[in-house]
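Milestone M4 deliverable, item 7.
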Amino acid sequence: NIAANPAYTSGIVKTTDGAAIVLGGASPTFTYFGTILNQPATGGALGYITQIAGVSNATVSISGPGDTPLVGQGDGVFINNVIGPTTVDMIGLELTGEGSTGILVQNSTNDPEFTFINTIIGGATGPTAQGILLSGNSANTITEFNNLDMALPSTTATGLRAVNAGVVLATGANTLSTA
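Output delivered:
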């Protein structure tokens, strides 16, 4: 758990339960530039690559070297109850885990902005799988995807589900497909 204002520049390898990066509460200014490999143990809990919840007036930037330095083989990205003006930028996600949701952004209010650049979603298996779920956000919450490549293997998967999502933008070259 990181609640101060650090800037990290090394790699994270996560093989246990829980998220690789957790930001909870407070108003952090957090910058991470490095690689992340979230690789849960066989038969273990999946865990998120990042979990951001209950923050307000925060600035979060998570990225790394190369095209997709942030590799999640678990549950993906969890963002909940973020209060603006907050910005969250994630660049270079490769989410190929068997979790039920690749990116979840929910219950965020007062104009936060979430940006996902160069994102690959190829996991999200199971009968209720969703590549992206945006729900319960205020009308002025902005979620932007730039260069999103989603190919879900399940025939019952939902690529993008937006229910009370706020503003959703897709820029750049984006592809979405399910089996």
